Amino acid sequence: MSALSGRRIVLVVTGGVAAYKSAYLARLLVEGEAEVRVVITEEATNFIGPTTFAAITGQPVVRSLFSSGQVSPHTELGRWAEAIIVAPATAATLARLALGISEEAASATLLASTAPVLLAPAMHTEMWENPATQRNLALLRQDGRSVVGPETGALAGGDEGIGRMAEPEVIVEALIDLLAGPLSGLTVLVTAGGTREAIDPVRFLGNRSSGKMGHAIADEAARRGARVHLVTAADRRSHPAVDLIRVESAQEMAEAVDKLDVDIAIMAAAVADFRPKDPRGSKLSRSEGPPDIALEPTPDILSAVLSRSKRPFVVGFSAETSNISRAVEKALRKGSDLTVSNDVDDPGAGFGVDTNRVSIISAEGDVEEWPLLSKDEVAARLWDLIQSRLNP
Ligand code: PMT
User: For the chain, which has fewer Cβ within 10 Å, the N-terminal or C-terminal residue?
Assistant: First the structure.
């Protein structure tokens, strides 16, 4: 998986001769497994056609606010984007962006988005050095826009000097830096959902876990730049950058987890502790009367991760229906670096709902109670805490 895998990138191509290099840039992004959408200005079509970008990205190219077939292409793309690259960014484009002018699809998309923006200016030296351009750039930097290049070299019409657009490879590196979050460079495992243990081909022993808690944790890790493997028994979607590994039983989850070498493991799945010892090969019939189902223990996935020779930072979960002392006793016995305990009898906490009220138990047994929060907020706070533990 590359650093751009699954990232949603809008490439805005404006009217300079360097627009031809943006086709190669689009290709590098696609090769990096990014999802790429292109917006092209009318001026840019003097240098390169939208068909080229459509062929490279496999997506229609937006040329106008009114002719794309979408009701509101600029807001739709602006919200969809995780990052926007403007390459080439002409002097006129920089001026429009600095002033917030948005009379066509490219500048309107930029104004309608809160995603980080990477500008790759390209123009003649005189235009680059003009105080108006430098003033606009200073404004754009103040607004938090990032700039890559320009470089010195051959320019249009045989001229030489500063103003040449940064090479596509350099722009991709700058984009990776722009997208990098506090968890960049770390590999994370999250388990989620409730396992199903077969009784026969149609029936199973299961539990009420929806996977919401674990998926929220995996999605937040991806947003913070981690490489994330989510081993889940839940039928839910996840952030496009997450490596989603679907499993059904505790055994399948154990085997999937076993293959992953990670820096941090968050075990939010509700894993069955016992499974039918001899699942039937064919459907049990009512006429046979109630079956005797002998059970056997499932693999303890958390303990296996904790006993690895290259042990990751481990966060266990604890679903309790009694008071916190049982969760503390379990946390100390298991030996996770942190344990997230939820009282699943508490309305609004635990299984199925969108909120959770958790207590965080340290490796020493200290308890910190968090208020009722959305599962997304629990995930964000948990990552803040893990980050502070890893970088005190
Ligand atoms: O999925 P949701 O609907 O959003 O609900 C979230 C949740 C309530 C499932 C979640 O917050 C939670 O509490 N997950 C852990 C549930 C659980 O199985 O707890 P436990 O106390 O039985 O297990 C303790 C720990 O051991 C857990 O980290 C569990 O993943 C792990 N375990 C358990 C059994 C087993 N065979 N292998 C394991 O790794």
Answer: C
